[in-house]
Each structure stands twice: as C-alpha cells, then as structure tokens.
Design goal:
heterodimer, A: mainly alpha, MetI-like fold, 2 strands, globular, B: alpha/beta, Rossmann fold, ten-stranded mixed β-sheet, 25% strand, disordered N terminus
Chain lengths: 312, 272
C-alpha cells in the first residue's frame, strides 16, 4: 500500500513536470508538493518503525498468544505478566456499543439534513454538527464524569457510574459528527433523478429515503460509520476519564473497564523507558495502530466503490 | 365530463376520444416569475398529445402540472383549474400518491434505480403494498413485455439496470411506470438522450401504448411530434418570458395548415 502511494506521488509529480517544463515557478511548486507528499509518507513509515522497534521486543518475554489471550496485566509483579485481553475486550465492547448508538441516530440525522430539512435549516445545523467534532475530548470526558455517570449509576442501580457503557455513550456523541457529516454528503450525492423517479411512481418521502436514497448511498454511509468507529477506537482521554479503569476482563457493558487507549495512557507515566512494561504498552499501541489502519482502509475502499458506481 | 373534442375529421382522432386531462386558465409561477399564462387545453384519452415549443417556454413545467411534480420545488404556485377525468387534482382532498399512480412519468434522461432490472420494475407495486413474489413476477414480466423489453432482458432480470444500454434503460423506465398500471403516461423528452434506433423503438412503443393509455409527450423534435402524435400543442414565450399556448389542434392540421403565423414560423424552422 505504502509503496503504491509513493509511486503514485512520484508519477503524478513527473506527469505535471512533463506538461509545464519551461516555467521555473511551476517547477518550484511541484517540487514543494512532491516533498510534502513524500514527507507524509516518511512520517507514517517512521511511526510504524518506531512502534515496532519499541514494542516488538516484548514478544521475546511474552509470546504473542499469551500477550493477546492473557487475562492478567500485572506489569510490576515479580515476575510481571502482560496479558492484554481485558483491554481488547473493553475496546471491543465500548466500540460496539457506541457504534450501535451512533448508527441509527447518525443516519436518521443525516437523512433529515439531506432530504427533509429546508436549505436554511441545513445551512444552520450542519456547521453546528461539525462544530461538535471540535469539542476537546477532555471536555467530553468531564461532561461524562459529572453529568452522565451519575445518571447511568442510578438508572442501572450500579456501584459506580464509571462504566464502559457511559464511555460508549460519550464516544457515540463524539463519532456522531463524522457519521452525520459524511453520510449527509453521501445522501446528497445520490442523483436527484432517482428521487424524482421514485416520487413520480407515487412513493412517499419516507419510502423514497428508505428504499432509494439510503440504498444508493449505502457505501458512503458505511464509510461514514467506519470513520466514526475509527474515532471511537482511538479516543483516549474520554474513556480514561469515564470508563472506570478496571483491570478485569469485563463481562457486561455496565462494568468499569479499561480500553486499550486508556491502558496506554494510564500506564506510560510509570513505565521505565525501555523496560518490559514500556515495551508492552508500545505493543498495545502497535495493535491499536493496525486496527485503526484496517478500519480506515476499509472505509476508503468503500468510498472508492461508491464513486465508481455513480460514474455512468 | 364526457365532452367530445371538436377536431377536424382528417386526423387520426376520428375516434372522438373522451377528454382525459384538462387545464383551464392555468397560471404557474416560480416565486414571482410567471412560467405559464392562461393555458387552456383539453387532452383526449387514448391518444398521443405532443407539447412542442422552443426551449424555456414552460413545456416541462406544463407537463409536471399533471402529476404535481412541481410540488417538489419550493415556492411554486399553480392557479386555475387542472382536471383528471373531470376531477380537479389541485383540491385539498386529492391524495398525491393516488394521483401519481394514475399519472406516471418518464423522464428526459433514463433514470433507472441503481438496482436490478427486476427490482426497478417491482419498485412501484412494492411501494403500493404488493408483497406476493409470484404476483410481482407476473407484473414485472407483463410490464417488460408491454414495454417491448422482455426478450432483451429476460435472462438479465437480476443484473444491474445501469448495465443496460440507454435505449433499454428508457424502455425499462416505461416498464417501471406501466407496472403501477397508470391511466396517463407523461413523457418529458423521452428520446433526447437516445440514438435514432432507440428513438424509433420508443415511438413504436408509444403507438402501441395508446391502445390502453393516454400519452402526453414533450418534445424538442418537430419530426417526432409530426410522426407520433395525434394532437399537438404549441407553446411559446411571451415578452415577459411566460409560456403561452399559441395553437392547439390535430397534429396533421397544425403541421400542414397552422392558423397562427408564429406556429408556421416555428415548424418551418424560422426560429426556435
């Protein structure tokens, strides 16, 4: 994948150069753009290299199977054990629950903005929704801590309101802006012809949204959800503050838990540089990196397919 | 309403068809802009009525009055009377879903849904509550046969409709309309995106359809109007750019012996 992007950047720059060889100003800008493109790729490669160099040595101490399936994370015991199963399961629960909350709300809101709202309302609401994406995650965490967790505690009659479920609700709010914004773009990209045909056949607005617009925009909506999921997986501060931070493998969403990001953030301050715990935390980071990379790759694939489908 | 149209005898209209659609003193506005002025016209049943005229004279707007597609555009205002079988379709009690079931529409650009051929034709019946798979298959086959498309797509029912040729897509759109068993089919320049062969196929299809349906077609193509239509209406822009009806009558008369000088100028290609 990376090799392909590099060659694409170089090829694009080469082509542009061929077209406007004579102007030196053009050449300067082309060179600059090429440099920026290469720089982005170099940084990405550097991060991967760094994560592997710092994290991989843990597998000399703990084999990958023990690392992924171990339920015990005792970094400072003698001997220390590094099992990340609690974090993996926590991340999974929090991500699934937050996605389950965000999908119906996000799609409904996108459909409203794209198909129902008047242009005036849309032009007012959409920037507001996108503004929601800009709220610092520590503020979201604070809101979860002060407002949401007491509510969760009393609703489910729990010992503590700091649970995976509370974190999932906050994360769903944080992924909603992306899901709404990208889904809305996808819905609006559905050619008007389709909707007209549907109305002309006597379909109602709801039927047209449900049976024409959403299916036609489905790959774009899927990509939107993937991007939202990516955000939920990678989010750190909010889950650190709200999820509860328990080290056991969670059995239900309403238990305190510690997703991978929170595990890294809370552990890295105590880890000795180059020590086993330090390596293990970087290995978690590496796992996280590949998960989000996978989600983003799927999302861009799906978006690509959507583009091709309507180019007729 | 069983008023018979007074039409000259030499036309194909000697069947003395009943009036199907009718407008009286129709005025249409987009905001403050008037797109149609005082159009009064009676469209006969089971015949092809062509609406011709230069670009921007309100032909499409006029066509969309009959299935109230103009409603989808904000700040459209319709004044005057529009009747289907003698019943005003702009009164409060009219159910638009019902109206659009009776008055189907084929658009300028073939616009099949990005679904299979089968699902395209089944779309209308499904929306109107048909769930029985066997019945749906029957409707799909019948509609495709009526649209003269069955033989070409019977092995490709599960394939994407977007893979069909432009002409096939347009006939699919006709089949999709036929599947809801309308009474009137509005066609908004249905052949302007098609090649001559596909155009002829659609025209042949229209001639067959009027056994059972009333067809109203907007067309830019004078030869097409002369070839297929029984009645023709010539619209033109007035000074304030509002569309007005210049002349309406049997196609044969309008094209060979127009009453109005402007009609003559238009059909002989002196402007427009």
């Amino acid at each position: 994948m990376l090799m392909r992007s590099i060659s694409a950047v170089i090829a694009a720059a080469g082509k542009a150069r061929g077209l406007r060889r004579q102007r030196s100003g053009e050449r300067f800008i082309e060179g600059w753009i090429l440099l920026a493109g290469i720089l982005a790729i170099v940084i990405l490669l550097g991060i991967v290299f760094f994560l592997i160099r710092e994290g991989a040595p843990i597998f000399l101490h703990t084999n990958p199977w023990q690392f992924f399936s171990g339920a015990k994370w005792y970094p400072v015991s003698e001997p220390p054990t590094f099992g990340i199963l609690p974090f993996l399961v926590s991340t999974m629960i929090v991500t699934i629950v937050s996605t389950a909350i965000a999908i119906p709300i996000g799609i409904a809101c996108a459909a409203y903005l794209a198909e129902v709202a008047s242009p005036r309302v849309r032009n007012m609401v959409k920037p507001l929704v996108e503004l929601l994406a800009g709220i610092p995650s520590v503020v979201m965490g604070f809101i979860g801590l002060m407002l949401l967790s007491p509510l969760v505690q009393s609703t489910f009659n729990l010992n503590t309101g700091l649970t995976g479920f509370s974190a999932a609700i906050m994360l769903s709010m944080m992924s909603l802006p992306i899901i709404i914004s990208v889904s809305e773009d996808a819905l609006r990209a559905v050619p008007d012809d389709f909707k007209q045909a549907s109305y002309a056949l006597g379909a109602t607005r709801w039927e047209t949204i449900r049976h024409v617009s959403i299916p036609a925009a489905l790959s774009g909506i899927t990509a939107a959800v993937m991007l939202g999921v990516g955000r939920a997986i990678g989010e750190t501060m909010t889950v650190l503050m709200v999820a509860g931070g328990a080290l056991a493998v969670p059995q239900s969403p309403t238990e305190p838990m510690m997703p991978m990001t929170a595990a890294i953030a809370s552990g890295i301050g105590n880890a000795v540089r180059g020590g086993l715990q330090y390596q293990a935390l970087f290995a978690i980071g590496l796992v996280l990196f590949f998960i989000t990379l996978g989600v983003n790759l799927i999302a861009s694939r799906v978006l690509e397919r959507q583009k091709r489908r309507f180019a007729r | 309403m069983s008023v018979n149209l007074a039409v000259s005898n030499d036309s194909k209209m000697s069947r003395n068809n009943r009036v199907k659609l009718r407008t009286e003193q129709l005025n249409l506005y987009y905001g403050s802009f008037q797109a149609l002025r005082d159009v009064t016209l009676e469209i006969p049943e089971k015949a092809i009525t062509a609406i011709i005229g230069p670009s921007g004279c309100g032909k499409s707007s006029f066509l969309r009055v009959f299935n109230r597609m103009n409603d989808l555009i904000s700040n459209v205002r319709v004044e005057g009377c529009v009747g289907l079988d003698g019943i005003s379709i702009y009164q409060e009690s009219i159910d638009i879903v019902d109206l659009r079931k009776k008055v189907g529409m084929v658009f300028q650009k073939p616009n099949p849904f990005p679904m299979s051929v089968f699902e395209n034709v089944a779309y209308g019946p499904r929306r109107h509550g048909m769930k029985n798979r066997g019945k749906l298959e029957e409707i799909v086959e019948r509609s495709l046969r009526q649209a003269a498309l069955w033989d070409e797509v019977k092995d490709k029912l599960a394939n994407s409709a977007l893979a069909l040729s432009g002409g096939q897509q347009q006939r699919l759109c006709v089949a999709r309309v036929l599947a809801v068993e309308p009474e009137v089919i509005l066609m908004d320049e249905p052949c302007s995106a098609l090649d001559p062969v596909a155009t002829l196929k659609i025209e042949d299809l229209m001639r067959v359809l009027i056994e059972d349906y009333t067809v109203v077609i907007v067309t830019h193509n004078m030869q097409q109007a002369a070839r297929v239509s029984d009645m023709a209406a010539f619209l033109m822009m007035a000074e304030d750019r509002a569309g007005v009806l210049v002349e309406y009558g049997a196609t044969s008369t309008l094209f060979t012996n127009p009453r109005d000088k402007r009609t003559e100028d238009y059909i002989t290609g002196r402007f427009g």
